[in-house]
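Input record, target 12 of the design panel.
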């Protein structure tokens, strides 16, 4: 083993990856705490929210649409949607024009749980990120920029 391990950054607080990982873990813990009482994981919430968002403009939302909305793995989306269907939060029906696809719809129970989840998640996000104050729009813009520049990798 070398005598001294060399790091590019002088301290962990200079490493954007380290900081992002730590921030993400803290944020995920808060999300878990508020979603557990609703019987939702964060991934389930994200897919329900994607479905809810996409359904505002499209009556024929598919699994692929949901995966694309969240830049998510299609197989993972399929498994999570099966779980949401077992929980009676969504149902699938035949697509009117694409025989390979199913249309995913929120059930009444799914819409109710999504609305409850949106309220607690959005309020928790506002509280969590409130320390940024007027810098929040810039922070969001920078995150969106990073996502856009790295999403195809």
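The sequence produced for target 12 reads:
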């Amino acid at each position: 083993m070398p005598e001294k391990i060399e790091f590019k950054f002088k301290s962990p607080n200079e490493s954007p990856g380290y900081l992002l990982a730590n921030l993400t873990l803290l944020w995920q813990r808060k999300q878990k705490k508020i979603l557990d009482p609703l019987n939702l994981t964060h991934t389930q919430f994200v897919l329900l929210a994607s479905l809810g968002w996409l359904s505002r403009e499209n009556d024929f939302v598919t699994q692929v649409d949901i995966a694309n909305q969240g830049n998510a793995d299609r197989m993972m989306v399929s498994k999570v949607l099966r779980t949401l269907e077992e929980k009676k939060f969504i149902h699938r029906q035949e697509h009117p024009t694409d025989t390979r696809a199913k249309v995913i719809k929120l059930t009444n129970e799914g819409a109710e749980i999504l609305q409850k989840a949106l309220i607690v998640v959005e309020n928790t996000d506002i509280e969590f990120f409130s320390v940024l104050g007027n810098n929040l729009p810039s922070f969001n813009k920078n995150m969106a920029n990073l996502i856009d520049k790295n999403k195809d990798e």
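The two ends are 33 Å apart (CA to CA).
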